[in-house]
Design a protein that fits this description.
14 helices, 2 domains, TIM Barrel
Length: 495
């Protein structure tokens, strides 16, 4: 790997010398795996030629997400009124389909052929007049009909709550009506079209800048639920754990009030840059390659735990952005870095997630694991230090998934990504109907893609139940996965 030897991702035993693990190999499936149905990769901004799709495609072929989010580029498809050129978009759609990645398409309003000047994407107001509305609807109908059988999922616009200048959204009813007419046009071209509405920057939460629940309330109050199949949102937080069960419950209550309680949630953009940049989401932080990889894992696991049907990482490649003031600047969100499209550590973290979540992963509500002080901690530390250890343990995040009938566990400590934090070992207790699958457990580091055999394992019987105890496992600052040996052998075919 390009980052081999980096102190940020050295061997687990170098970072945790007393961990009871032994190197067992690397994650390297011997046969192709089915795409990860609940993971998506961002291939946005190609409608503005911000990066070169073909230069990223060879790396993309090694990933296996179920989906890729792309943008339709009305401005690029119809430079002359009534004359469509889809050749550039055909190439992207057909390339994705050729490697079994399903495109889902964000249809972005704005076209200089009708508005003139520099009005595109966010700088274009929603305008309902006969000429522009008719042109937009004709474009959508043509688009949906052209890609029938290849693209069935369409998302309407992108972050309408963050549009600029003359395009600023003043009235949510205007966007709702825009969604209704756009959905009708898409279904005229493909009556089976699956429509995603929202694409809101605020997501399922309130902030001082965006009041997400109020926005969703008005969106559905104005009748959006009658024309969309799913609600999409974006999720950019230094601490993705900020969106938790209460926030999700609040959003679900909004849905229930408007009769759409089963509406799926799609997380359409989430992630962080790999370097400082002057603007855009989570900018002006001292990010680096290693922090980005750790954040990616935290963010995507939180998305799935919080009920997202699909979690989409933004994005495959770095790109050069045109800011509102007309200046250009680099954006470093990519799994692939510019200018040479090299693979960052986040590329390997994402690849590991696709393989662990091959097919359809679900939350596991049957099996349970808990983390406890190790025997050494109990015997060797003072009462005061014991309290310190417990204080650290309060911030541990736990995730339980199930895939192909196998339980998969993951954990990490919530830390400030820009500060060093204490790391430590823990004893893990596995219980539930499938606990005994962990009698042969392995620990997987998803960034380095290394597999470690757990050395201190025993079955404990008490009160008529069996518990698998695993001692001296690392608690890191990004998710590590505990998986049954049978999952690695039978599903991933990697041991």
């Amino acid at each position: 790997m390009e980052f081999a030897g980096s102190p940020e991702f050295s061997s687990l035993l170098q970072r945790f010398p007393r961990a009871a693990v032994a190197y067992a190999g690397e994650l390297s499936p011997k046969t192709p795996l089915p795409p990860a149905e609940r993971l998506s990769i961002g291939c946005e901004t190609l409608d503005r030629d911000y990066w070169e799709f073909d230069r990223g495609f060879e790396s993309l072929k090694e990933l296996s997400p179920g989906w890729a989010r792309i943008q339709s580029g009305w401005d690029k498809c119809e430079k002359t009124p009534g004359v469509f050129d889809f050749e550039w978009l055909d190439h992207i759609v057909e390339s994705l389909c050729s490697i079994h990645i399903r495109p889902w398409m964000c249809v972005c309003f704005g076209n200089k052929a009708y508005y003139g000047g520099d009005t595109y994407i966010r700088k274009c107001p929603i305008t309902f007049n006969a000429e522009i509305t008719g042109a937009w609807e004709r474009y959508l109908e043509t688009l949906a009909r052209r890609y029938k059988g290849k693209v069935s999922h369409f998302e309407i616009w992108n972050e309408p709550d963050l549009c600029w200048g003359i395009g600023k959204l003043e009235n949510i009813q205007l966007y709702t009506e825009f969604v209704k007419c756009s959905a009708a046009a898409l279904r005229k071209g493909n009556r089976e079209a699956f429509i995603l509405g929202g694409a809101f920057a605020c997501g399922p939460r309130n902030t001082t800048r965006h009041h997400g629940y109020a926005l969703a309330e008005q969106f559905f109050k104005n009748g959006a639920g009658s024309c969309i199949n799913a609600y999409s949102y974006h999720s950019y937080d230094v601490f993705p754990e900020l969106v938790q069960t209460p926030e999700l419950a609040a959003m679900k209550r909004v849905f229930k009030r408007h009769g759409v309680e089963d509406m799926p949630l799609w997380q359409g953009e989430g992630g962080c840059p790999a370097a400082w940049q002057k603007d855009n989401a989570l900018s002006k932080h001292p990010w680096n390659d290693a922090k980005q990889a750790r954040h990616l894992l935290r963010n995507m696991l939180c998305d799935l735990r919080n009920g997202a049907e699909v979690s989409s990482y933004f994005m495959l490649s770095d790109f050069t952005y045109k800011y509102a003031d007309g200046t250009l600047g680099p954006c470093h969100y990519g799994l692939l870095a510019h200018p040479d499209y090299r693979r960052r550590p986040s590329f390997y973290a994402y690849k590991s997630l696709c393989e662990l979540f091959t097919g359809r992963v679900e939350l596991d509500e049957e099996n349970l694991f808990s983390l406890h002080k190790t025997d050494d901690q109990r015997q060797m530390i003072s009462i005061e230090d014991s309290a310190d250890v417990d204080a650290l343990r309060v911030s541990i995040q736990r995730f339980t998934f199930k895939n192909k009938g196998f339980p998969l566990f993951a954990w990490y400590r919530i830390v400030n990504p820009h500060r060093g934090e204490p790391l430590f070992l823990s004893t893990v207790l596995c219980e539930g109907p499938q606990a005994e699958m962990f009698k042969e457990p392995y620990l997987l580091d998803p960034v380095t893609r290394t597999i470690w055999r757990c050395e201190k394992v025993r079955l404990e019987e008490q009160w008529g139940s069996s518990i698998v105890r695993i001692d001296d496992l690392p608690i890191g600052d990004y998710p590590l996965f505990l998986v049954p040996g049978a999952f690695l052998k039978e599903v991933l075919k990697t041991l």
